[in-house]
Amino acid sequence: MKLYEHGDMAMVEIERLPDGLTESASRILLEGKSNQHCHRGNGTWYPRVIGQFVVGYFVAKKTALTHLEHGEETGGNLKTAEIADGVYEVRRQSELTHEGMKQVVD
Amino acid sequence: MRNKTHNGNVRITADNQDKMLKLLARTTHIGGDLSIDSNVHADLPALTSLGGYLFIHSNVHADLPALTSLGGYLSIHSNVGEKLAKYLLQTYAKNRSWVLGEGADEILLTSTIQDIEYKISDVAMDKATFDAIRHGTMTASDVFAIENTEIRRVAYERLDKSKMSELKPRVLQEGVESNGKPIKLVEIILPSHDKSFRYLVVIDPSTDREYWLDASSATRATLNGIKLELWGLPDNLEWTRMW
Question: Cys-Cys crosslink for A39: which of A30, B50, B112, B239, Cβ 3.0 to 4.6 Å?
Answer without folding.
Answer: A30
